[in-house]
Write a structure and sequence with these properties.
It comes from Upupa epops (Eurasian hoopoe). By secondary structure, this protein is of the alpha+beta class. The protein contains 4 helices and 11 strands; from the N terminus they run βββββββββββαααα. The protein has 2 domains: 115 residues, no CATH class; 70 residues. A 7-stranded antiparallel sheet has the order 1-2-3-4-5-6-7, with helices on one face. It has a 4-stranded antiparallel sheet with strand order 8-9-10-11, with no helix packed on it.
């Protein structure tokens, strides 16, 4: 943002890409939208209520009270029952600088505009439910991939800490600032991966040491 606060984060988590939009705040910034490359996404109102929710079958648009305003299904959805409601183009402004335009499953655009400069990210993807109605089991990650993920999470922690040091030079102020929720979530996910893929205790110890160093 023009304020220097982080607006949009793009990160790879295991086999997917994640796009995160944060509000314009120097600390404890709330997540306003999250999209991943597996066809899921959520946008929230400033009060935290879910605005738009998207999955591999379709999506839903709600008002701030939580009531459904609109619902649609993607053309390639394999829903077994219920009418297939077509999507009408949607555009929302998450804040003064970030907007989301939904034109189709593979055309979901996150746009950023500030000081005459614009950036666009297509976070849409073509995904549909398999005939069995479930995802295939993920391939196990190798040692190098898990270590790389650990280093990426650690770098995000360090960048957040650096930003806190720049914005709040006083040690007393910095100690009161909580880390963004997405960092805790990423940390928990990579630690769960160690258990899911049954890696060695030595590797788990190394990953914990990297993240917590």
């Amino acid at each position: 943002y023009p304020s220097g606060n982080l607006a949009i984060i793009l990160v790879r988590d295991t086999a997917q890409l994640i796009c995160i939009v944060q509000e314009d705040k120097p600390s404890n910034a709330k997540v306003q939208a999250v999209f991943n490359s597996r066809g899921r996404g959520t946008c929230c109102y400033p009060n935290g209520a879910v605005w738009i929710n998207i999955n591999i079958q379709g999506g839903q648009y709600s008002d701030q009270a939580g009531s459904r305003v609109r619902k649609w299904t993607w053309p390639n959805s394999l829903m077994s029952s219920g009418p297939h409601t077509a999507l009408s183009p949607i555009f929302i402004s998450l804040n003064q600088h970030v907007g989301v335009r939904i034109l189709g499953q593979d055309k979901i655009i996150v746009s950023f505009l500030a000081m005459g400069q614009q950036a666009k990210f297509n976070v849409g993807t073509k995904v549909q439910v398999s005939d069995g109605g479930c995802w295939p089991a993920p391939a196990p990650l190798g040692q190098e991939e898990l270590l790389l993920l650990a280093f990426r999470v650690r770098m995000l922690w360090l960048l957040d800490r650096l930003r806190s040091c720049l914005n709040f030079p006083s040690n007393k102020q910095r100690d009161k600032i909580k880390a963004p929720a997405y960092l805790s979530t990423l940390t928990s996910k990579i630690l769960r991966l160690c258990t899911s893929f049954d890696v060695s205790s030595e590797l788990c110890h190394s990953i914990r040491a990297i993240i917590n160093s």
